[in-house]
Structure formats: structure tokens, C-alpha cells
Amino acid sequence: MEPGREEHLMFAKHFERAQGWLLLENHAAAERALRLIPSAFRGRSEVQQFRAQLYLAAGRWARAVPLLRKLVKADPSEAQYWVSLAFAVRRADSIAAAEKILREARERFPQEAVIWFNLACYAAQQDRLPEAHNWLREAVRREAAYRELAKTDTDLAPFWKAVADGVIAAPWGD
């Protein structure tokens, strides 16, 4: 049976509240608001996306992974689902497992700089510095803003140390 006007209003009210609580970084209150959404609306894609975002924000990686896998399966054309899934898998499982996801994502979305950037981070964390160099150059070539982010991202610290030590060349002429 199609939800009535009252259920639609309840959905809108509690979904908006959940979003507000997440903005305030009150993860428990956001989760409580989601539980108040009428059951007919809980399976909607925007609710599932929000729940995944909430789990990521709360650092509940193992809870986020299956939900993000469902989102990727339901809409494999959404690059952000792949990036978020890799992010959660890295923390719930391993960098190697996350890297596998991002390598597939890179094939699907070759122009998405965030994917190349994260691959650079993963390579740096695994001491594959020449590979990190190449991934980083490609990320910056696709989106120049990653040049500044690269300087402060802690995942790239091993790479920058190797650059400072003269072990590997800088990815651009700074």
C-alpha cells in the first residue's frame, strides 16, 4: 500500500532531523531520527546513502561496508559510492582490499581525480613510492586542487619524506 500524506510528512521531518544531527556531529541522535522514519521509506536510496554517510562519519566502518556494497551494486555508475566503499574497507579490512576496489573504480571513472589521489595514498602507505608518484601526478593533472591537498595528507607522509631525502623526485617542479 502506498504511504499516505501523514507518512510522507513523518519521513520528511525525521529525515531532515537526522541530517541536522549529522551536521552537528551527533551521530547517536541522527541514528535515532532515522529509526523514526516510517518503514515504507527506510529502503529509499537517499536514506541508504545517508545511513552510509552517517556510519562513515561515526567511524563505524564495518557497518558501512555492506551498505556501501549494496549501493555500488544498485548504482555502479556513481563514483562516490566506490570511493566511500574503498574508504570504509580500508579501515574495516585492509589497504590492499580497498586498493582493489579503487583500481576497478579507476577503470570505470578514469577522470575522477579523487580515485587517483587515493591510489597515490595507498601506494605511499605500502612504500610503493614510484607508483605513488605516478598516481599523484595523474590526480593533479585531472584536478589541480589535489596539489595542495597532497602536501598535507598524512597518508602521503612516507612519499614526501622520500622526496625530502632525495630518494624520489617531486611529482611537479616545486
- What value does the Rg take, in angstroms? 19 Å
Quick one: overall form?
Answer: elongated
Distance between the termini: 63 Å
How many β-strand stretches? 0
Note the main sheet: none
What is the averaged pLDDT score? 94
Contiguous uncertain segments of 5+ residues = none
Task: Give the number of helices.
Answer: 10
Structure write-up:
It comes from Oleiharenicola lentus. This is Tetratricopeptide repeat protein. Keywords: TPR repeat. This protein has 10 helices and no strands. It has 174 residues and is mainly alpha-helical. Among the domains are: 1-42; 110-174, no CATH class. Helix 3 packs antiparallel against helix 4, helix 4 runs antiparallel to helix 5 (79-92) and helix 5 (79-92) runs antiparallel to helix 6. The protein is elongated and about 65 Å long. The protein starts with a helix and ends in a 10-residue tail after the last helix.
Describe the structure concisely for a colleague.
The protein is built from 10 helices and no strands.
Write the layout of secondary structure elements.
Blueprint: H1 5-23, H2 27-35, H3 45-58, H4 61-74, H5 79-92, H6 95-108, H7 113-125, H8 129-142, H9 145-152, H10 157-164
Helix pairs in contact: 1-2, 2-3, 3-4, 4-5, 5-6, 6-7, 7-8
InterPro entries: TPR-like_helical_dom_sf, TPR_rpt
Keywords: TPR repeat
TPR repeats: 45-78
Short key terms for the protein model shown above:
mainly alpha; 10 helices; single chain; 174 residues; elongated
